[in-house]
């Protein structure tokens, strides 16, 4: 059969005899190959295809040469059986035993698992594989670079799950079949390195440009040599973007919205658990864009803006606290409609971005592709607040005023945009009616004035929106102080002043007062009187009080003895002589006086003699007996006639003076 005949035959055969679904016929020139699939030991489809091919060849004047036809059987069955003989045109084409068996060419059955993978969570990891021949396997694992292994047998056919106590540890694992009658030689697989989640050590954002900021992240991973790289997944609303890096550091230019960022480490067998962080939305930022929002109906917001900078826009919208929806538009007009299932009395936040990518404005990349244009909150329908403020208290209470403070109402309880607070207060007095004070929404304290003193007041506070005033708070009661008169205030405030003044004066004048009322009595030994007595003996006093005679030469060094006049008769004689101005010889007087002075002991009789001279009024006023005797006895020695006293008044000495002054007086007169 030449080439043209073979081509015609091939075309006719392929057209007239399509292969069985389990068979494939490949014909090239004058060669034909038949592939047949034998399932569960049944080869009927294959046999039928061989017989049809032989019959077609005979019909089309083609001869099938049996001696040149070869059959190869690939038998993947573990327990194979002999196939029945096959005849072609009466010739035995296949004997009971095929030319060779597939497993005769292999050393043994394939026992090692294939396509080994792992998947790690924080508290466990799962190792999975594929093998249709073996159903029972064994896993060993340990901490990386440690020595002791932990063995776990499989429960399912193709996976093993292991709980790990330490979520920050890097593990390594191997798997093998459990020896059986089919696989007697089971070997451990290659190592699986199972990393923990990356540990973020640095995360911050910094202003980059209007509506943009730069994000910088840095993380750590032990045994980094077993890691091929890191996947970074970024989500904003319902949109996602993925990035990969080999480094443990990442920079990104993002907008002012909120982002969820996840980082995983991966190698050729699996990946680590994800470390997830949230980059918070920028709060209280006033953007340059102007966006107007109008509630058209319960399921639609109409949005318009003033920018023509780009034609590609992206929006996030949803509850202020909750999940949000994201989408992007390419539009030539600065307006669009947001449709959704919006609820009344719930606050929604709408964020608008300008994107700098060509249509269709897809959100597959966040890095430097957009900036925040405007942020605005809106309600489909506003309502009144559900509750009044809490934690109401009064402080700095006076007779006519009191300071009230309260806490903010949670945003979810406002049901609209807060416009202010209403303070309602009333007293228990029948003369007053209930009053109300309205303050703005940023005020959380207020001072009530013009109150009545000593009066009980009841306060209720409520919040109001554009829909009206909401429910009032619970009653709060306080009592103003009682008013006190000015005189009592002055007296009460003056008491501390007077007390302080008295203490100051008392401290300063204490010494003066002490000297005036509690004089310090000096020691008699140190008194001037004793010093004069030590210098002057009684004989001199007698001498100077009688006549101007020369000083007696007595022993004055004996100041420790008491000198007493013994004979009263001699004293009387001397006195009488002085009284009558009789001349007395000085030497006789001195001798008589010296004879009258005795020392040592004072006898009672001598005291009586002085008492008689002094008269009935002679009494000692103190323990200083000698001085008292001299002082009280002196007047008797100085008595003279009244006429003589008047004549000599300018030279007389006052006998009522103490003996010291008298002594000086007489001595001065004697000198003159």
Total DSSP helices: 12
Tell me roughly what share of residues is in helical segments. 10-25%
Unreliably modeled segments:
96-108, 539-557, 559-568, 596-625, 636-641
Biggest sheet details: 8 strands, mixed
What's the N-to-C terminus distance? 196 Å
Structural class: alpha+beta
Number of domains: 7
| Range of strand content | 25-35%
The total strand number stands at: 36
Please give the radius of gyration in angstroms.
Answer: 66 Å
Mean pLDDT over all positions: 75
General form: elongated
Describe the structure.
It is a single chain. Helices cover 22% and strands 32% of the residues. Strands 5, 6, 9, 14, 15, 17, 18 and 19 form an eight-stranded mixed sheet that branches. Strands 29, 30, 32, 33 and 34 form a five-stranded antiparallel sheet that branches. It is built from twelve helices and 36 strands. The relative contact order is 0.05. It has seven domains: 3-104, no CATH class; 114-194, Immunoglobulin-like (Sandwich); 199-279, Immunoglobulins (Immunoglobulin-like, Sandwich), CATH 2.60.40; 291-379, Sandwich (Immunoglobulin-like); 393-479, Immunoglobulin-like (Sandwich); 486-520; 524-671, no CATH class. Residues 96-108, 539-557, 559-568, 596-625 and 636-641 have low confidence and may be disordered. With 672 residues, it is α+β, with helices and mostly antiparallel strands.
What descriptive keywords fit this protein?
elongated, five-stranded antiparallel beta sheet, Immunoglobulin-like, alpha+beta, 7 domains, 36 strands, eight-stranded mixed beta sheet, 672 residues
